[in-house]
Amino acid sequence: xxxxxxxxxxxxxxxxxxxxxxLWVSRHLVMAGRLLEDDPELAFQHALAASRRGGRLAAVRExxxxxxxxxxxxxxxxxxxxxxxxxxxxxxxxxxxxxxxRGLGRPDRALDLARSEEAETLDAAGKAELAMVVSGARAxxxxxxxAVAALEIPQLxxxxxxxxxxxxxxxxxxxxxAAGRTGESEKWRKQAKVAxxxxxxxxxxxxxxxxxxxxxxxxxxxxxxxxxxxxxxxKKDAAADGTxxxxxxxxxxxxxxxxxxxxxxxxxxxxxxxxxxxxxTDSAEExxxxxxxNDTDSTPGAGDGDAPSGTAVGGVAPxxxxxxxxxx
Length: 328
What we know:
The protein is mainly alpha-helical.
């Protein structure tokens, strides 16, 4: 394992390091990506190990934040995402930052983030993720009708499917149930399954999405990102309440949606067509740890503003298992 598994932008950042440090950082980032879903705590330790020699890199700080969030270390995750935002200038992780505030028992601060100017810069997928967090925060505060209203955004369209639509539909159904409006929720759960089938996300062996074109439509199939890629991490709710799902992690699922009805398929690229049962998909895998663009000096655990409660990332030593598993 030499780190070639990382994406091109991350490799470009790592090349700025001394050769031995670059190999160290690359190996630990690869392991963090591989372990993110199966063993998030060990993935977090690998990311911490990478930060010992690559703490100035945006991609490394992003990896520490994502793995900390997956492992439930919301204070560390929030601090790392703040640092990543300062280094890269990207607000892509704002929904996850808001969910970290929920995980720390501060739903009011999550709502403040959702009302910030930075939230206006999010793409369609980011706004959908943030809406799910806001709905959960409202439910945390006992505002059940407000939790429903928070999800009534343009992206919530019963007849159009995006990569995030199945989760958004289910979150809305759960919010309706919590508010006592069970008669309205069933159609949204049913449509979530229709959207999953159309997007080709039911079969874990075929996680990516392609255009499903009808016989009378022209054009070649094009790969479309998955929801997991949109947020670069696991889809996890920091403060599960059964009302709304929280974001997980970083890709771009913008663009126009496509019409979806019973037995109809859509994708996030704006193409739509009839879908037969069992229609499969196939596309190349994307790296698990996305990269940021810029690289400035920073030290692990040093975030912007007041740091939330929790152990500073720079103060946690990586486990022996994390270092041994990459031969570091």
